[in-house]
Amino acid sequence: MRCPTCHKPVDMTAKNCFRPFCSERCRMVDLGTWAAEEYRVPGGPPTDPVNEHPDDRKKHRILH
Ligand SMILES: [Zn+2]
Hints:
The protein is an all-alpha fold. The protein is about 30% helix and about 0% strand. The protein has a domain at about 1-40: Erythroid Transcription Factor GATA-1, Chain A. The chain contains two helices and no strands. Bound molecules: zinc ion. Zinc ion binds near residues 3, 22 and 23.
């Protein structure tokens, strides 16, 4: 059995409470209930402000 969202093999035992998904994140994706910023795709858009380097932010603050 593979995860309908990411197609990785899924642990179908009782241990996995997100069946048939591999994780809570994949379940949320499938339900279309992306809780805004909490469930992000690894390697998302490079413009993501959260991935901004702290030093860049400091520089920005100094310049303005
Ligand atoms: Zn998955």
